[in-house]
């Protein structure tokens, strides 16, 4: 339900954003500018989620076990980033 309202809000904001390019005298409403800021500002949030996930692994003491697995550190970080990005897209 929350995802539906979030996507509906993004859709309305995107419509106003595109409409502002068509009509040069039309001003972008504050709600649409907020949605545009969310769309273009969201990639900055994913690294923070990834860092928090890695810090939580370290705090719980499971990071050593994870890094001892037969995968590279880069693969672990890339997997955490992918999971954080997917989580952000779903929420």
UniProtKB/TrEMBL annotation:
Record's keyword terms, sorted: Membrane, Transmembrane, Transmembrane helix
One of the record's GO cellular component terms: plasma membrane
GO molecular function, one term: ABC-type transporter activity
UniProt keyword annotation of Protein biosynthesis present: no
Any single Pfam family the record assigns to this protein: ABC2_membrane_2
Membrane-spanning segments: 31-50
Name of the featured protein: ABC transporter permease
Organism: marine metagenome
């Amino acid at each position: 339900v929350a995802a539906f309202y979030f996507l509906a809000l993004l859709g309305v904001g995107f419509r106003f954003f595109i409409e502002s390019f068509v009509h040069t005298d039309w001003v972008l409403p504050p709600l649409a500018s907020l949605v545009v800021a969310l769309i273009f500002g969201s990639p900055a949030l994913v690294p923070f989620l990834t860092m928090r996930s890695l810090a939580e692994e370290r705090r719980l003491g499971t990071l050593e076990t994870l890094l001892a697995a037969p995968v590279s550190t880069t693969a672990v970080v890339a997997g955490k980033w992918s999971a954080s990005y997917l989580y952000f897209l779903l929420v």
